[in-house]
Amino acid sequence: MRPRWWLPLSCGLLALLPSCSLESKDCTTMGGVSGVGFDASALPTTAPLPWQATSCADDVCQDQVVDDYQNTWFHAGNDQLNGDPVTAHLKIVAADGTVLVYSTTQAVPRRHDVNGNGCGPLIWVAGAVVEADGTLAAAPAPESP
């Protein structure tokens, strides 16, 4: 004979089972890199190509050659970012040696779940925009999907 508590306990556990079921997440499989994104689309398209661009997130920098006026977005990856302010620096020099941008600003990275909430990887992104006069200003970082 089974103990009397077995049946009520079993029924109670069965009642809890649906609420404890594993819930599937809608996750994508995109990758992502922490860093600062720079939008330089406001720069004049009269400066001769190619442009030499150096973008930095704190002390981590990337160089890029711009050979098309449509390619005015830059990214400086830095996997050490978190929610603390980051120094964003951008330098762009035209083919004739004209300095189009040589500017620095502070930006605050935002947590970004690139594959959906709770799906990972978790990255930190900040934004900066180049004004028409060549100055750099912090811009809102993108929201998580």
UniProtKB/TrEMBL annotation:
The residue range of the signal peptide is: 1-24
Cite the entry's keywords alphabetically. Answer: Signal
Protein's UniProt name: Lipoprotein
